[in-house]
Write a structure and sequence with these properties.
About 65% of the residues lie in helices and about 0% in strands. By secondary structure, the chain is an all-alpha fold. Helix 1 runs antiparallel to helix 2 and helix 2 packs antiparallel against helix 3.
């Protein structure tokens, strides 16, 4: 396997792990707990799927299973981000111009049509 691709996959896998770990430390309003957990689980699934691709030479069966799930994981990420937007949308008036929650606007159906 090309070491450059392995390094790149490791970097991407680590990025999803870092997003997962960072999301675990974010305080979340009670109304968004389920959606937040879905997002954390999606970050973890992508971390695991890409991590399995890294070790494909060592464990091809695991890599094959995770590669087949990767498309679903990527779709899950989009849906998780959309769901975060939808649950927070009714509270948009409470979000200030510097609030990180504004990121979720990028995943609204209006923004993406």
């Amino acid at each position: 396997p090309d070491q450059g691709y392995i390094d790149e996959l490791n970097t991407i896998s680590q990025a999803y792990k870092n997003m997962r770990d960072g999301a675990l430390s974010v305080p979340v309003p009670a109304i968004a707990v389920k959606q937040h957990l879905d997002l954390i689980n999606t970050f973890n699934a992508l971390h695991e799927s890409i991590g399995a691709m890294v070790i494909a030479a060592e464990d091809p069966a695991l890599a094959l299973v995770r590669i087949k799930r990767y498309q679903d994981d990527a779709l899950g990420l989009r849906l998780s981000l959309e769901n975060m937007y939808l649950i927070l949308e009714p509270y948009a008036s409470l979000v200030g111009p510097d609030d990180p929650a504004l990121l979720f606007v990028l995943f609204s159906s209006e923004f993406n049509s």
